[in-house]
Amino acid sequence: MQASRARLFKEYKEVQREKSADPDIQLVCDDSNIFKWTALIKGPSETPFEGGVFQLAFSVPEQYPLQPPQVRFLTKIFHPNVHFKTGEICLDILKNAWSPAWTLQSVCRAIIALMAHPEPDSPLNCDSGNLLRSGDVRGYQSMARMYTRLAAMPKKG
Amino acid sequence: MEDDAAAIHVIKSLSSEDDTDTGSCCPICLGPTLQPSYLDKCFHKFCFNCILRWTKVVASKHRSQPSSVKCPLCKTENFSIIHGVDGSCFQRHYVNEDFEYSFTLSRAHRYRLQCYYTEQGFLDDVFNISHYWKSRKYCQPNSWLQSWLRREIQALIQEEDVDIIVYHIFGVMNASLTKREQKSHMNAPEKVQEEFKTSVSEAARPFLGARTERFVYEIQLFLASGLNIEAYDAVYIQRLGWSSPGVNTQISDNELIDRTTVIPYIAKS
Asked: Which residues form the UBC core domain (chain A) (predicted)?
């Protein structure tokens, strides 16, 4: 069995075993393909993403864990480090700073941390980055909150 | 072969126990740690193949071969992978060394190294060193000595290229013995032996350090045996056994076999 497959099965087992360990993350593997995963993560509290549930799509390469998984937001999000249209995420550990000791679960945790601590100096969403860089925290927060309401919360009524 | 099977069985049974305990899992494959290996600075533990593969991935991203690799767990810079630890010796794979050219201690090398952890003198009843000196057997050249010295020094300092040290020590030995030859009739055998020990010790000490005394004793034992390397090893093994004093000899040998078969696959990928 490929190393990547074996490792993903281990992660799958771990996710099943520790389902309640991290209530903010819900990782689900595609029924027919161990290399495709989706995750539901809760927006961190005291951020404009609070109360929202965001869906992530994982595409795991054959060389995993020597190569990082590709992750993107399926849920629309207004965040300096997430591409507004494609959902692509700019996060060092998903690129140069990847380490094979990361797991899909810990990548989700890193993304939650990124939501709480945006890096406006390496923006994929310039509008969002510029708001923060110009010091308009309030403007950024209200835009982010609006998109959280629109896209990441169950529709009322 | 039977021993191999037993060792594999032990590894497997250990593995299945480890499976539930995440503490002993390799952080890269998340499975039980096979051929446990440690990074030389932070001592984090990985499977040998896992950390070696990761090192190669890191190296492939650089234009020139890097000399260090960051630990996947703590990001400490490490320069080598320590592996094959069996209580009495270990092997070291440097990050920037090409695996094909790296030196792996053979089973015989490892065995010789283990001999240095035994009590000196348990073969004295088989090979009589003082008789060797008294009967002036040292006047006869020993054609296996140089090869024997090479293997011994390779095992002791865990380096492949020891030619210079071998020639140096071999030269000092020959000089010491031939000098004696000329006026051997005047000297008492004990004195010849003492002078031999002193000069060889002096020559070997810079390279072998604390193991020098035992090394000089082992040289005399080999010379006194009058045997070739194979026959000499056979006597040693007969007396000492393969598995003692290192407990894990069988398993570590297994690992060696395992590794040589796995590496070509990594090189390709």
From this structure: 3-153
Taking each continuous run of H as one helix and of E as one strand, the counts in chain B are 10, 6
User: Is B24 part of any domain?
Assistant: no
Q: With CA atoms as reference, report the closest residue to A148 among A58, A11, A55, A61.
A: A55
Residue pair B207/B165 in contact (Cβ under 8 Å)? The answer is yes
Cα(A75)–Cα(A152) distance, integer angstroms: 7
Shortest Cα–Cα distance, A100 to chain B (Å)? 5
SS3 category, B45: strand
* Domain containing residue B64: 36-94
> Are residues B229 and B146 located together in one domain of the fold?
yes
Cα–Cα dist A13/B20, whole Å: 11
In a domain, B253, yes or no: no
pTM over 0.80: no
Compute the count of residue pairs across chains A and B with CB atoms less than 8 Å apart: 33
pLDDT top residue among B257 and B30: B30
| Co-location of B113 and B234 in the same domain | yes
Gyration radius of chain B's alpha carbons:
22
What is the pLDDT confidence band of residue B22, given thresholds at 50, 70 and 90? very low
Is B42 within 8 Å of chain A by CB? Answer: no
CA–CA min distance B54, chain A (Å): 6
Residues of chain B in contact with residue A103, where contact means CB-CB under 8 angstroms, are 30
Chain B closest-CA separation from residue A54 CA (Å): 27
Q: What is the pLDDT of residue B251?
A: 42
What is the model's pLDDT at position B246?
A: 42
The domain total for chain B is 2
Superfamily of domain A1-156: Ubiquitin Conjugating Enzyme (3.10.110.10)
- Are B119 and B235 part of one and the same domain? yes
Q: pLDDT at position B91, please?
A: 82
Question: Do residues B112 and B233 both lie within one domain?
Answer: yes
Residue B22 falls inside a structural domain? no
Give the separation between CA B86 and CA B111, rounded to whole angstroms: 12
Q: Encode pLDDT of B117-159 as tens digits.
A: 888 887 888 888 888 888 888 878 888 999 999 999 998 888 8
This complex has an ipTM of 0.86
H helix intervals, chain B? 2-18, 48-60, 107-115, 129-134, 145-157, 163-183, 189-208, 212-225, 229-240, 249-268
8 Å CB contact of B30 and A100: no
CA distance A129 to A122: 8
Question: B28 at the A interface (CB within 8 A)?
Answer: yes
